[in-house]
Design goal:
Layout: E1 4-16, E2 19-31, E3 35-39, H1 45-52, E4 56-61, H2 67-70, H3 73-78, E5 83-86, H4 91-97, E6 105-106, E7 112-115, E8 118-124, E9 133-137, E10 142-146, E11 149-150, E12 153-154, H5 164-173, E13 183-186, E14 192-193, H6 194-197, H7 201-206, E15 220-221, E16 224-225
Parallel strand pairs: 3-4, 4-5, 5-6, 10-13
Antiparallel strand pairs: 1-2, 2-3, 7-8, 8-9, 9-10, 11-12, 13-14, 15-16
Length: 235
Amino acid sequence: MTARIERVVTEGVVDIDGVEHKVENNTWIVGDDDEVIVIDPARDAEKIMEQVGDREILAVICTAGLPDHVGAAIEVASRDEAIVALHPKDKPLWRETWSETWPDIDMEDDGVFGVADIQLDVMETPGVTPGSVSLYSEALEAVFTGKTLQADGPGKLGGEYPGLADQLTAIGGRLFTLPGATRVLAVHGDEVTIGDLEPHFDDWVSGSLTREAKPEGPLTDATGLSGIKIEPGDD
């Protein structure tokens, strides 16, 4: 059977530094009529499982350890005893939601997950969290970017850009090396393509994201962002 991508949208509230934010999350289901992998099961396991149906869940992959990426991970994985995967650098964040259990697999850069007739390649894309990852499927021409890259640019938490220099390094050096037609499927918002977003990269590096609301810390200077590492593939 040919693999496909399905989206489930859930709603909830996330507490960031004592402030509650109402958010919508995309949970992505990748697979065929027999088996699937679930990416970022934010909340509302029942709604996610309704979409999965009687297909076997092989794995639950969390692109970050934040509550709105892992909130339904254990419940979704439990029915089929699926593995739960997370980058080890995000384990402290995981424990804020799941204090008595751990993920089953530590993801690493260039790791591979297989489902149906395709594979998902792990790309380390830190920034929003130390262990943020993206998952690229060449066969499906899609990359699941979590919070690292969204339709409106790099990811935010509570209106700020955490680890923005690292985010832009990952975006420029990893994600923007993918083909322009690659679908960007993030944890929030609508889908776009790499080609839609890449023309904005130079503006992001020059400080357009932080010009009006400069975040705390050493990320910005008078000319824009400091600390950006220019990797092969950057313009």
